[in-house]
Design brief:
Blueprint (H helix, E strand, L loop, with lengths): L6 E5 L9 E5 L17 H4 L3 E11 H14 L8 E4 L13 E10 H12 L1 E5 L4 E6 L3
Parallel strand pairs: 4-7
Antiparallel strand pairs: 1-2, 3-5, 6-7
Length: 140
């Protein structure tokens, strides 16, 4: 989370022993300063986060989910923290290491990426109020 640097003003007097006065002003908080537990987690908010390139060739779904978690942490300045998880509620869930994803996407939002990934892996996703994106098999 980055903030604007504090504004600093320096004044000097044309005297041999001139004193400099420095005053700092704290900038007003921005939306990015709102703690993640307060920020809104909606599918529309996932549309504001864009991944420049997704390039997977026969990558296990678990590794794809790990990549999404890494990318969203890189974008923490969004003011929202998300966590992507694979739901393994049943023994018949096919979203394991044998499920692979192959795709190439450019300038894609997280929502679009999730839709394409789930289509490729024959699964679905849902977003909870707490920012957890649960990926689960169609059978669940």
């Amino acid at each position: 989370m980055f903030r604007e640097p504090a504004s600093i003003s320096v004044s000097s007097v044309d005297a041999p022993a001139a004193k400099k006065s420095v005053s700092a002003q704290t900038p007003e908080p921005t939306a990015a300063d709102v703690p993640s537990e307060v920020a809104e987690h909606t599918p529309a908010s996932l549309d504001t986060l864009v991944i420049p390139v997704l390039d997977f060739r026969e990558v296990a779904l678990e590794e794809v989910v790990d990549f999404l978690n890494l990318k969203v942490r890189e974008m923490e300045g969004s003011g929202r923290n998300y966590q992507f998880v694979i739901s393994k509620a049943q023994d018949t869930v096919s979203t394991d290491a044998e499920t692979t994803v192959s795709l190439y996407l450019e300038d894609v939002t997280f929502t679009e990426a999730l839709n394409v990934i789930c289509e490729e892996a024959d699964c679905r996703w849902e977003l909870s109020d707490g920012g957890v994106v649960r990926i689960f098999s169609v059978e669940e």
